[in-house]
Design brief:
The structure is a homodimer. By secondary structure, chain A is of the alpha+beta class. Chain A has 13 helices and 16 strands. In chain A, strands 7-6-5-8-3-2-9-10 form an eight-stranded mixed beta sheet. The C terminus of chain A is likely disordered. Chains A, B: It comes from Thermofilum pendens.
């Protein structure tokens, strides 16, 4: 006879930890750093705070498979009464709203806690000073796996200055540091690229890296939004209907209140097109009506585009700053495209093309991919960005391989169309592919102008060398013929050459101006 | 201010459906068929029943994106009081035991129900006749997403004959049939290969395929097992300790009772080696002790290997039957390796090598992968089997490409080491890689014998042609010299030739005997 039973979410993920990326001690360590850093960024920049982030990895001297990860930030902190659930209950969080964030699962940090407690048995340590609170709290906690509730081992509260805020998290887990340190370092570097306004200190057994912020300018934080009518399914509609306080609401009012970019007129036009009476009370809707409503909402082609106030791109200027900070190229040009959308989800594509300087020569463009300001390090081969970059004939833009060329792509969306379950590659949704190609070509055109100008400069330099080679001879001969003094003639010729070169060098002033 | 809240497991998977493979209407349809078929196989063969499975895909005539999937089996049925939870509550199931099964998540069919209700709003229909019960039940149900409980719309019970049993499930979801029908067909074909004892009828809008069983022999079902000491973590130890009825149990008794292949003596030797008193009461264990215990259990190298009674390989004979059923080759040889283990998890590798017949010529060996009798259709490029097959120099085995060569690999384990989260590729764990290579080489050697013999046969045939070409002339001349009659001489020569050919053809008797 079969025995049936239910699992708690914590039990489920304890048994299936690879689903959340904790498949082995190397990947688990990478994932832990990543979850903590991304939480710290979300706790700072989203709330208008310039991030100061400290990341430390240290090894137990008696067993170097036991790795302690500490991440500290100056974020808004976690409300003290929420700490146990936020760190100790799977599927609990603050990110279940429609706007661009890094984490969306309410799963990441809990998985790190679970992994730590199943491999080393150690509780997570959390110290948090919530913004505006007069008290800060310190916690040691585990997850009660069977019941999916936090198990607080110790907690302590202290008075603090009102304006101090931030969170420190420390975890000890079994990790394969040697196998994964290169990848974690690359993750930190790329995070520093996409957050030029953040100061990041990264300390490891091998040494320390410090990325000072290169700007104090923060991108505008995303606002919360409503669903676009094309982005919902029957279940979401049902939940919206349940959450309406009164059943006397009409269908028209329901649409206007719950959806993005739907005014009275749009709602009425749509409902008539879909065969519904706009004045129908929502309490009179049957389940079949919901099915028709959802399907009509998807196929109606006169909705306004979703607005992009829920998104927070970096902007071309910050993206260029970030690229300069990490790649130190000779030239960079960034492009932020206007908002677009797919299946009711708004998205924005940004791209930077960087050339020369410290970028290594390579046979194909080096690609750095980001989604909602998160670096994507795995599965590049199947990402839409790779496809677009490989589809471009770079000789059109005067690039000859091997070349020191890097392409940075950043897709922001309330719903990134990830390919499969790894969340490391973006699918080739036609709308996104189109925007990426437009952005890359736009930036590449600026690179072309730069490369043509560089070619001209070289040409001028070559001419200068030729001039100077014959200058003495010409001056002497001319002086002999014209009887003008050699000094006078030399001065005039020097002026001529200087003017020629000056014209070029003043064009180049400002170093990165080609990108503006 | 951030708003915090918890999600139910159903809400979580509703929002993150791609985690369970339901990322788009094509993949969701594939996944739905797969989940239902695998449940049906688990409900039959695991309980000693020869499976009769009926799969039907039909399209709504008014909207062909609305796809209805029906799967019926003659399995043991679902206990009537469990039906609502089994189909309507995420993380509920009967498969949370240590033994080889297909599904392990308690998630698959619920995801199909969720996907159906969010895309078409239609409930799942279940009719089940549990084995030994006098009643059968019929249900229409949805999942209450917010609370993760089943919402039964209608149910009905009927008397039935005691010996009738089985389950019918029907779902209507949004699916992209045209995009995915080839892949579903391939899935069904490969399922038929790995279950030669199953009869499968597959009906689609395009027609019907019928796979009659080719044998009535079932592989021995897997038994439930205990954890191997190397396969546990601290959380599992804690749960085991909690489940002991008495706290007066000693550490030694605890190990003997809870673990695979651990007798009194092994337990005592291990505990002394690890620095524990075997007579210590488990109630006196501290959390630090657990950590040491778990880590010592992993590193102790004198445990006996895990037993393989939890596994259920097909066996070489059934695997050959399956290959003949689907690939219809000229030659097939299958090999089942003895049990092995990695990190405390037992596994068995089986391999078949098939050649000629209806197999197409290809430049590299065609590969068909299976794990716990499930076909793996995606991500072949990163699977350990592909790596091993590509690493073999096939000319050693007399195979010249392009060749009509297929390699079938089957890994059985209580924990398949899947690569990443897609569960479509097996990682290159050294132990598994080694076993795969040994098995493939073993089968390939049998193929080599076959190919050498075929070469020899061709050689003989060639000689026969030569003999016959000169036979008349030789007989005539010899008769003239020896005065023996031409008839007599011809008879003797014919006998000689026949004996030569007879030797070869009697070797070949039985067609597939080269594989035995």
């Amino acid at each position: 006879m079969e025995r049936f039973r239910g699992l708690s979410p914590a039990e489920f993920f304890h048994r299936n930890k690879e689903i959340a990326g904790f498949s082995n001690p190397a990947r688990a360590l990478y994932q832990t750093v990543r979850e903590l850093v991304e939480n710290s960024l979300d706790a700072t920049e989203t709330h208008g705070i310039l991030p100061n982030i400290y990341v430390e990895v240290s090894l137990d001297p008696s067993d170097e498979n036991k790795v302690t990860v500490t991440v500290a930030d100056n974020g808004i902190g976690v409300p003290l009464h929420e700490v146990p659930n936020v760190f100790g209950r799977v599927f609990y969080g603050s990110k279940y709203v429609i706007r661009q964030t890094r984490g969306v699962f309410g799963l990441g940090v809990k998985m790190a806690v679970l992994y730590a407690q199943m491999t080393t048995g150690k509780p997570i340590y959390v110290r948090t000073a919530p913004m505006g609170s007069k008290v800060e709290g310190e916690y040691y906690l585990l997850i009660d796996v069977g019941r999916n509730v936090p198990h607080v081992l110790k907690m302590r509260f202290r008075k603090k200055e009102r304006n101090r805020h931030g969170t420190v998290v420390r975890l000890t887990l079994e990790g394969a540091w040697a196998l994964v340190k290169k990848r974690i370092e690359e993750y930190i570097r790329r995070t520093a690229l996409i957050t030029p306004y953040a100061s990041i200190r990264y300390k490891t057994p091998e040494g320390e890296m410090i990325f000072k912020r290169v700007t104090r300018e923060l991108p505008k934080p995303p606002e919360r939004g409503l669903y676009h009518p094309r982005g919902v399914d029957i279940e979401i509609l049902k939940e919206m209907l349940r959450s309406m306080n009164s059943n006397n609401v009409t269908l028209k009012e329901f649409l206007v209140k719950n959806f993005e970019s739907v005014g009275e007129r749009t709602a009425e036009e749509f409902l008539r097109w879909a065969g519904f009476d706009p004045e129908l009370r929502i309490k009179d809707l049957r389940i079949q009506d919901l099915e028709i409503l959802a399907s009509k909402m998807k196929s109606y082609d006169k909705w306004r585009r979703p607005r992009s106030h829920t998104l927070s791109p970096l902007g071309a200027h910050l993206l260029e700053e970030g690229v300069k900070r990490i790649l130190a190229p000779e030239f960079v040009a960034a492009v932020t495209r206007p908002p677009s959308s797919y299946s009711g989800h708004p998205f924005i594509v940004e791209v930077a093309v960087a050339y020369g300087g410290e970028i290594q020569l390579q046979d194909t463009p080096m690609l750095l991919r980001f989604a909602n300001r998160m670096p994507l390090l795995y599965d590049e081969g199947v990402d839409v960005s790779r496809k677009v970059v490989d589809g471009i004939d770079w000789s059109v833009y005067k690039v000859k391989f091997p070349a020191p060329l890097a392409v940075v792509t950043h897709v922001c969306s309330t719903k990134i169309p990830f390919k499969g379950v790894g969340k490391e590659a973006i699918a080739d949704v036609p709308e996104v592919e189109r925007e990426l190609e437009a952005a890359i070509r736009d930036a590449a055109r600026k690179l072309r102008i730069h490369l043509v100008r560089m070619e001209k400069m070289l040409e001028v330099k070559r001419r200068e060398v030729v001039y100077r080679k014959y200058l003495d001879e010409v001056v002497r001969s001319l002086s002999y013929i014209t009887l003008i003094s050699e000094e006078e003639l030399r001065r005039k010729f020097e002026e001529l050459i200087a003017r020629e070169l000056g014209r070029v060098s003043s064009d180049e002033e400002g170093g990165y101006s080609g990108a503006a």
